[in-house]
Amino acid sequence: MTTLLAPPETGAKTAGPAAPPAAPPPGRLRRLIRGPASQAAYVRPAALALLVGTAFLYLWNLTASGYGNTFYAAAELAGTQSWKAWLFGSLDAGNVITVDKPPGALWVATAFARIFGFNSFTVLAPQAFMGIAAVGLLYATVKRTSGPVAGLIAGTALAVTPAAVLMFRFNNPDALLVLLMVAAAYCVVRAIEKAGWKWLALAGVAIGFAFLTKMMQAFLVLPAFALVYLIAAPTSVRKRLVHLFGALVSVIVSAGWYIALVELWPASSRPYIGGSTNNSLLELALGYNGLSRILGGAGNGGGGGGATPTPDSAAAPA
């Protein structure tokens, strides 16, 4: 029996050329520089350029200022020699008297000096790094509300403001104060987006530690932060008030623990609180660093750079 084969179909489709392989995903470094694909190509490179430029501006020839404010440099030197001096911000390793500010900024700077050694660069570099971080945080804060162009303008404005350049190249407490206040502003913006009490509590923590840096000056932004959240948070008024109360508690706890520690520590075994009239950190906050700043009062005499702090020069405030 003969089997007939069916003739081939005349309309059969022939296979075309193979599709080109999909492009490999961009490398990690390229993604880091370029940023997410949903973002304009210029945004991430411009932000990185802003940070690099700020780092150059704040770190270039940094040691030209010597040891900066020798009043605080002496306290930092003491902190590298005595843990108690580091805790209280003493001017000398023998813990006779503290500086006239809480030791928040000294904690950071002294930790840096303990790790890398005490010298002009390690005294001044922490403030420069704080400045770079503050510029980056301000950019991120403004970008979330007004877009990347506004964020770049805000970050650049902070970076090149003459007072900021001086502040972030010197070892006064203002550098950490500004960084913490900008961090608090970022947290408030994040809290407003979804009425997030956790972000608002973090803002309170930042302000609390800003208080431990330069006391009452940290509270200048609190009315604005509270008012903005009370008006703009997307939740009920009752919840807004509850969230604000929680933030207030976080401010009190993050600042109050150190005040309680100093006040409860036997005065005979800790240094005298510099700037106070009765050896009280609370009185220092309300008096010398509080009402006296409004009604008028003299600051410490610590000043310009050049001299190298020594244990002998740290025996008393300038």
UniProtKB/TrEMBL annotation:
**Can you name one GO molecular function term for this protein?**
pentosyltransferase activity
Topologically, how does it sit relative to the membrane? Multi-pass membrane protein
Entry keywords, A to Z: Cell membrane, Glycosyltransferase, Membrane, Transferase, Transmembrane, Transmembrane helix
Task: Give the source's domain of life in one word.
Answer: Bacteria
DNA damage found in the keyword field: no
> Where does it live in the cell?
Cell membrane
Instruction: Specify where the region named Disordered lies, as residue ranges.
Output: 1-28
InterPro entries linked: LipidA_mod_glycosyltrf_83, RgtA/B/C-like
Q: Name one Pfam family in it.
A: PMT_2
Cite the record's Pro residues compositional bias ranges: 18-27
Q: Where is the composition biased (Low complexity)?
A: 1-17
Which terms under GO biological process does the entry name? lipopolysaccharide biosynthetic process; response to iron(III) ion
Gene Ontology CC terms: plasma membrane
TM spans (from-to): 41-60, 124-142, 149-169, 175-192, 199-232, 244-265
- Asked if the Swiss-Prot or TrEMBL record annotates the protein with the keyword Plastid, the reply is no
User: Domain named Glycosyltransferase RgtA/B/C/D-like: which ranges?
Assistant: 100-255
Return the protein name: Dolichyl-phosphate-mannose-protein mannosyltransferase
Name its species.
Kribbella caucasensis
